Each structure stands twice: as C-alpha cells, then as structure tokens.
Amino acid sequence: MKIGFIGLGNMGAPMAANLAKDHDVTGFDTMAKPDGISMAVSAAEAATNADVVITMLPNGDILRAVSAEIHAAMKPGAIHLDCSTVDVESARAVATQAEMQGLHAIDAPVSGGIGGATNGTLTFMAGGPETAFATTKPLFDIMGQKAVHCGPAGNGQAAKICNNMILGVTMIGTCEAFVLADKLGLDRQAMFDVVSTSSGYSWTMNAYCPAPGVGPQSPADNDYQPGFAAELMLKDLNLSQMAAQAVDADTPMGQAAAALYRQFVEVEGGAGKDFSAMLPRFETRRRP
Ligand code: NAD
C-alpha cells in the first residue's frame, strides 16, 4: 500500500517506522525529521497518490487545517485514517468533509503510548465506514495488537475519551486512597496486596501502581518520569468535558478530575511528570 503519514512526533515516528517495513511510506512534519522515512515537502505532497493518509497530530484545530489541505490532494476513494486524539466534533467534521470530496475517513485514536507505538502493540478504537475499516485493518495489525470498530464517524474518539475519563478518575481515587491509608498507619504493600485482589482493584492499582516499590514496575519507580504525562491526561479530560457539555451528560467525577489535573499541571508544576504523580501531590496536602 502507498501510505502518506503526517505528524511524525513521539507517536507518529515509530508508527510510521513500523509501517515502512512492509509498505511504501512518505512522511511530512512541520518540525520533526525522523530517520528512515522518506519525507515530502508538504502534507499535500505526502497525500498525493496515497491509498491511505494517516494523521497523528496534536489537536482538532491542527487536524482540521491539515485535513483541508490533504483532502484536496488525495485520489478519489482514498482513506484518511486519523489516529490523533481530538474532540468528537472535529472528527465528525473531518469525516463529513472527506465524504463530500469522494474520500473515506476513519477516526482511530490509540491507547498504549510511546512504548506501544514503538513495539507495534497499540490498541485502536475506530469510527467510520465498515468497508474503510476493513481496508485499513492490515495497517492496524502492523501498528497494534487490537483494533475495535466502534461505529460511525467520531465513535473512536468517543470511546477514547470515555476510557480516559475512567482512567483519570480511577488514578485520582487510587492516589487519594494510598494517602488515606498512609495516614491510618496501613503499610503500602499490605494496601496493594488487599486492594489488587479485592473489589477496589483497577488498572491504575494493579498494573500502573502510583506508589513506588509495590506492585509491578511503573513510572512511580522511576521518579514519576512519564509514562503518560499529566498534561496529556489533562488534554483528554478536557476533551471528555467538552463532549459532555455538548451532549448534556452529567459527569461530576470527570469534571472534578479535569479540575484537579488542571490545577496540578498549570499551577503546581505537574507538567512533564507522569499522571500518577498525583500521589506525591496528595501527600503534601492537608484536608481543605
Ligand atoms: P507530538 O507533539 O510528539 O507530535 C505531533 C507532531 O505533529 C509534531 O512532530 C509536530 O511537529 C507535528 N505537527 C504539528 N502541526 C503540524 C502540521 N500542521 N503539519 C504537519 N505536522 C504537524 O505528539 P504525540 O505524543 O506524538 O501525540 C500525537 C497524538 O497522539 C496526540 O493527539 C496525542 O494526544 C495522541 N496520543 C499520544 C500519546 C502519548 O503517549 N504521547 C498516547 C496516546 C495518544
């Protein structure tokens, strides 16, 4: 397959490198110039004659601007596969624009981070036409270990922000419970051993424990180097709250999680730390 790949940052560069082992990949990025990928001089050039154009960009505004440029250059029937995490509204607007120009669009944000992108073990959650999903399935199989078709355009982004809203809320709950346990004199290993095998278990406790020295290796054991940075969690929580507002969904825990991560990232110096660094943050605080 001939593939255009726009946005070769932390995630896009390793994803494109994995695809280039089996496919003809032409990349474009306004800043990054990764080794091993043949580069075009513009997004439009990377998109010309491609069967599939993949975008992996920072946000919905940039996605909309790049989409206008590449859709004008893509050949009829080609597929725009967007793997960025963006707002549902932008994903649906881009899909409508693509259809109007005789193209197909799939929104397929990912879970799995830079490690998953490098190792080809990402999970994709996809929205868009069934037939276009089937055509892109071999590419998902190279870049990831699982791709779930979630329904029409925008549903991939919907799945992503719902998942990450649960993740943010659960991480905060796990961190505050550790701090309460500390203050009640409960040993952290005992806390882990009980909760990880009781009804309070979760991915944040069992697989990504925010307390160093207990549970499997996690960013907590590496001075909270990300991992999944707190500012990326804030981005996803903000997207969940934008969507909740747009459809009038009551999400009080998501709203509280967004406010806490905003405070942590923008006021308390949490930017650049893993999102599990909420635990040392709670350790330094008193009950309001
Ligand atoms: P990044 O900032 O490292 O990469 C984005 C790239 O897009 C940059 O290289 C930038 O130069 C390029 N870019 C910006 N504007 C452009 C334009 N107009 N034309 C071409 N290139 C342009 O970000 P990332 O960590 O690779 O994340 C990409 C997307 O994946 C984001 O939407 C993010 O939310 C999502 N995501 C990231 C992670 C993660 O752990 N990093 C995990 C899951 C999802």
Automatic annotation (TrEMBL):
**SUPFAM superfamilies, A to Z:** 6-phosphogluconate dehydrogenase C-terminal domain-like (SSF48179), NAD(P)-binding Rossmann-fold domains (SSF51735)
What reaction(s) does this enzyme catalyze?
Answer: 3-hydroxy-2-methylpropanoate + NAD(+) = 2-methyl-3-oxopropanoate + NADH + H(+)
The 3-hydroxyisobutyrate dehydrogenase-like NAD-binding domain covers 154-279
Q: What InterPro entries would the database entry show?
A: 3-OH-isobutyrate_DH-rel_CS (IPR002204), 6-PGluconate_DH-like_C_sf (IPR008927), 6PGD_dom2 (IPR013328), 6PGDH_NADP-bd (IPR006115), HIBADH (IPR011548), HIBADH-like_NADP-bd (IPR029154), HIBADH-related (IPR015815), NAD(P)-bd_dom_sf (IPR036291)
Q: In which pathway does it act?
A: Amino-acid degradation; L-valine degradation
Query: Where in the numbering of this chain does the 6-phosphogluconate dehydrogenase NADP-binding domain appear?
Result: 2-151
> Which is one Pfam family of this protein?
NAD_binding_11
Could you name the domain of life of the organism this protein comes from?
Answer: Bacteria
Instruction: Could you list this entry's UniProt keywords, alphabetically sorted.
Output: Branched-chain amino acid catabolism, NAD, Oxidoreductase
The EC number of this protein is 1.1.1.31
Return the Gene3D superfamilies for the record. Answer: N-(1-d-carboxylethyl)-l-norvaline Dehydrogenase, domain 2, NAD(P)-binding Rossmann-like Domain
Show the GO MF annotations.
Answer: 3-hydroxyisobutyrate dehydrogenase activity
* Segments forming a coiled coil: none
The UniProt entry's sequence similarity note says: Belongs to the HIBADH-related family.
NCBIfam families noted in UniProt: HIBADH
Q: What is this protein called?
A: 3-hydroxyisobutyrate dehydrogenase
